[in-house]
Design goal:
By secondary structure, this protein is mainly α. The chain has one domain. It is globular and about 60 Å long.
Length: about 230
């Protein structure tokens, strides 16, 4: 029954995106929500930055205390870690709001963002449900990058002049993905994980390869083309 959750989440994400895209094509609707949307965005990004920072710091503290151990269901068998991963997984559904906010501003998100949101919820769901310990390291990397990313979004909303660091944040996202995919390869050596969990890790890695390609294309389109000009 739990496997239905990411399917329902994906259907909701796509349906809501279509609805908001059509509704907020009208500039009048955009104007009506402009001010409350701005204040909501501030709290939205501040909340995700704090939550991501807490998650990253908590998991790093656990690894510092317990050490890095490779095996099946070693970390995920611990209630506090399982709880942290659960809430980080749930946050992947809440992050759909990133896309919804873009539509409500009358803009269209790029395919990279939609691919990222749908894939992340599915991958974290599988790792949480089947106790894939690799997700601990993936969560640390993802939460660390999200702490910086959502802090950046918050600062731009507060009119801080931080646009110059945008390229470095994207580079950090690329480093996160390459590091995560490379480290996950360690778990392919049996008998660290179960056979089913190997397939989950492989699925996760293929998702990451797609992100690496899309982020690479994004960097070329947004940064390399700017330099040529």
């Amino acid at each position: 029954m739990n496997s239905i959750i990411p399917v329902v989440g994906t259907c909701f994400y796509l349906t809501a995106s279509q609805f908001l895209q059509e509704k907020f094509r009208d500039p009048v609707n955009q104007t009506l929500v402009e001010k409350p949307l701005h204040y909501f965005s501030i709290f939205h990004n501040a909340g995700l930055a704090l939550f991501s920072g807490y998650t990253c710091w908590s998991l790093c503290a656990i690894l510092w205390k317990q050490g890095i151990i490779h095996g099946h269901n070693i970390y995920m068998s611990q209630p506090f870690i399982k709880s942290l991963i659960f809430w980080f997984y749930i946050s992947k559904y809440y992050e759909y709001i990133d896309t919804f906010l873009i539509y409500m501003k009358g803009r269209n998100p790029i395919f990279l963002q939609k691919y990222h949101h749908v894939g992340a919820a599915i991958c974290w769901h599988l790792c949480y449900e089947y106790n894939v310990d690799m997700i601990i390291f993936g969560t640390i990397l993802n939460a660390g990058v999200h702490t910086v990313m959502y802090s950046y979004y918050l600062m731009t909303l507060l009119k801080w002049k931080v646009r110059s660091i945008r390229m470095y944040i994207t580079s950090g996202q690329m480093i996160q993905l390459i590091t995560g995919a490379s480290y996950a390869a360690y778990y392919y050596y049996p008998p660290i994980e179960t056979v089913w969990n190997y397939w989950i890790i492989m699925f996760f890695n293929f998702y990451i390869y797609g992100l690496i390609y899309l982020f690479g294309q994004f960097m070329v389109d947004n940064y390399q083309s700017t330099k040529r000009v």
